[in-house]
Amino acid sequence: MSQQISMFPKKGIPRRLDADFRLFWLAYPKRSPNPRALAEAEFAKAVRAGASPAALTQAAAAYAAECAQKALGSDFVVHAATFLRQRRWEDYVPAEGAAHAPPSLAAPDHPLWPRCAPHLDLPTFRAWIGRCQVLGDTSEELLLSAPSAFVAKHIEREFAPLLKRVTGCLVVTIEVGM
Question: If DSSP codes are grouped into helix, strand and coil, which group holds residue 50?
Fold first, then answer.
């Protein structure tokens, strides 16, 4: 009996890369189907080949921002495994010493960007905070409207302290439904 080689990896992502891959997966634009097991294998290969997990995540966020800016339907988003295997991510990572964002992505016309710019790279801002509408901005409260519960929860968990610091407000409140 001959052995058949499976195109699907038998093992998931190495445990040491699990948290890094989760951040990449969260930043990557949504697409269905998008085989996670294949993306995990390609992510691990890219890291073994010398790619930084942070650079891969930054590239995924930049690609997500570009997809949102161009209003691409999810059918036109490249599979994450293809994005990694074909090294397309390299097109979204700035060169050493360059600004955080590729020159093709202009600064957003968002009221929070000027205050967040010194602390966040543009792709990360576009992927998360830039997707929200500012409903109120006082010294007491920053009120945002997020496009989904997922985005709202991620901003609360990852960016609320930064938003409090840069706006000087006491509370960050995020509503769902723009």
Answer: coil
